[in-house]
Specification:
The structure holds two protein chains of two kinds. Chain A is an alpha/beta fold. Chain A is built from 14 helices and 23 strands. In chain A, a hairpin with a 6-residue loop joins strand 13 (about 220-225) and strand 14 (about 230-235). Chain A is globular, with a radius of gyration of 22 Å. Chain B is mostly beta strands. Chain B has one domain (about 1-75): Ubiquitin-like (UB roll) (Roll), CATH 3.10.20. Chain B has one helix and seven strands. In chain B, a hairpin with a 2-residue loop joins strand 5 (about 50-55) and strand 6. The longest helix of chain B is centred in the N-terminal third of the chain and has 7 residues, at about 20-25. Chain B is globular, with a radius of gyration of 12 Å. The model of chain B has no long low-confidence stretch (mean pLDDT about 95). The chains are: A alpha/beta, B mainly beta. The interface of A and B includes residues 46, 90, 136, 138 and 370 of A. Chain A: Keywords: Oxidoreductase. Chain A: This is Thioredoxin reductase.
């Protein structure tokens, strides 16, 4: 009997894992919370939707959220609990799977540092601006400031321009010295990534054609407006991201799109018991995590973009399916090169330590519970334990369960908390939780 | 495709999410945070829960994740009031 591989996440990593696992002869169940495969990277409006051929050959579960991983036997991968149906609906179908191997490829989301006014409507993450243009043909505004750090600013600005928005400026917070040193180290590795370099050059050319200034060493440090963004305050930054006094400028805009990097979605790897290192899932050369039968691929193992995610997915899917390791030499080499790109990215676009200087006492840090910077600092000074800070300030206890403020609260607290272990990884209604769940083995056996 | 939001009819394109229909109609915010501060879409991909709405009587639906269906009745919700 062939091995049953369950893959969570149908972005570039998960799709690659599915095709490799199928090629190695496994039976594959591919699960994604969205109703279309492709993840954020391949996001597109439904009428332009181009199905991925691999979906025809696996058991494809769209609109399906993995809400819990249950470890019942330490030698086997965990049981995968899934809810299928419209997002956040009630009465969704509850099923579980007991795979022979599990590949986790849930991806990442924007990391956005707080600043005064970041909770005003009209401030969007860069990922939101991108998702709305690509998936919905909606632009976030007519006069948009794109700011933060990292190469992702460029495609976001480019797609806004393409949709007819006026992009006022693109601001990279790091100074040219940091960016160039990061990208320029070990130049022979960059030569192995000609696609990336060409892609970035094309974005830069598009900005130039639309006369959009790209400035380094400058950031948005405040958004202002009455009930919605009307203007943004930008300032020149030192290398540590502290503000150079007197360099503030006010720009009239109706939207701000901001990103300071990406946060891996660690709920499922943590639930599966995977050991983390430097905030990412630790994997070996086969993409195996420390948890038996559990593999990880894509942005959860390090932020390195779609080519790295695809290569990692191929390795993860192949090994999870029991494919012979010797056949993947070239893919592994490609993966290692793509991962080196990720290290370069991290070195070129670090978050400076001086950013808390942007905050005022009343600046919201946790958007859900509206915890202010002042009350977070007070809670941390009274009892620095992560749990005590959360309970006293309510930071991280609202609907998003610290998905947005978690890394920020960790940085601002003297004792950094571990990534949250959320036994319920995705929202589930009490009625659905109480309903009987069915084993899904029958469906996955052809 | 048409949905009603707090009694007002909004037209959207098939395949848009409820957040997409609201933004395309020029709405920036539709939820109130505990202090009463307005909230709309922030992350756009289901992470931040800022865009929650009531859809056909079911609370706490992420507007950026739910595809709008013909005839959906959407009501805005607030954390300043009890459910």
């Amino acid at each position: 009997m062939s091995r049953h591989v369950v893959i969570v996440g149908a972005g570039p990593a998960g799709l690659a894992a599915a095709s490799a696992a199928l090629r190695a002869g496994a039976e594959v169940t591919l699960i994604d919370a969205a109703d279309q495969a492709g993840g954020q990277y391949h996001r597109m409006p439904p009428d332009t939707y181009r199905p991925f051929r691999v979906l025809d050959r696996c058991d494809w579960w769209p609109e399906s959220s993995v809400w819990s991983l249950e470890r019942h036997d330490e030698r086997r991968p965990p049981r995968v609990h899934v809810l299928t149906g419209p997002a956040d609906g009630d009465g969704r179908r509850r099923r579980f799977l007991d795979p022979d191997a599990l590949v986790l490829a849930p991806g990442a989301h924007d990391r956005t540092l707080p600043f005064p006014g970041w909770d005003l409507p009209g401030v969007f993450t860069a990922g939101a601006a991108q998702a709305l243009v690509k998936g919905e043909r909606v632009v976030v505004g007519d006069q948009v400031l794109v700011a933060g750090s990292g190469p992702f600013l460029l495609p976001v600005a480019a797609s806004l321009l393409e949709a007819g928005t006026r992009v006022r400026e693109v601001l990279e917070a790091n100074p040219p010295r940091t960016v160039l040193r990061g990208w320029g180290r070990r130049p022979w590795e960059l030569a192995a990534q000609p696609d990336k370099a060409a892609e970035l050059a094309a974005y830069a050319a598009r900005l130039a054609r639309h006369r959009v200034p790209y400035r380094t060493g400058r950031a948005v440090i405040e958004a202002r407006g009455d009930g919605r963004v009307e203007e943004a305050v930008t300032a020149r930054l030192r290398a540590d991201w502290s503000v150079v006094p007197g360099t503030e400028r006010t720009l009239s805009v109706d939207a701000v799109s901001v990103t300071h990097g990406f946060t891996p979605q660690l709920e499922l790897p943590v639930a599966a018991g995977c050991v983390l290192r430097d905030g990412f899932v630790l994997v070996d050369g086969d993409q195996a995590t420390s948890s038996p039968g559990v593999y990880a691929a894509g942005e959860v193992t390090g932020i390195a973009g779609a080519p790295a995610a695809r290569a990692e997915g191929l390795v993860a899917g192949w090994t999870a399916a029991g494919g012979p390791p010797s056949e993947l030499r070239l893919t592994r080499r490609r993966r290692d090169r793509a991962r080196a790109f990720g290290l370069r990215l991290a070195a070129a676009h670090p978050i400076g330590q001086g950013w808390p200087g942007w905050l005022r006492p009343d600046t919201v840090v946790c958007r859900c519970e509206e915890t202010s910077y002042e009350s977070l600092c007070r809670a941390a000074s009274e009892n620095p334990a992560a749990r005590a800070v959360r309970l006293a300030s309510r930071a991280g206890l609202g609907p998003c369960q610290a998905r947005i403020c978690g890394p920020t609260v960790a940085e601002l607290s003297p004792e950094s908390p571990d990534p949250h272990h959320r036994p319920i990884a995705q929202p589930i209604r009490l009625g659905e939780l109480a309903a009987r769940s069915e084993a899904a083995e029958k469906e996955s056996t052809p | 495709m048409r949905i009603t939001v707090d009694g007002e009819t909004l037209a959207g394109e098939a395949g848009q999410t409820i957040a997409g229909v609201l933004l395309a109609a020029g709405r920036r915010s539709w939820r109130r945070a505990p202090s009463g501060a307005p909230r709309g879409v922030f992350c756009g991909i289901g992470v931040c829960f800022d865009c929650l709405v009531i859809v056909n009587g079911v609370r706490d639906v992420r507007a950026c994740r739910r595809r709008a269906q013909e005839g959906d009745i959407v009501t805005t919700q607030s954390r300043t009031e009890a459910p």
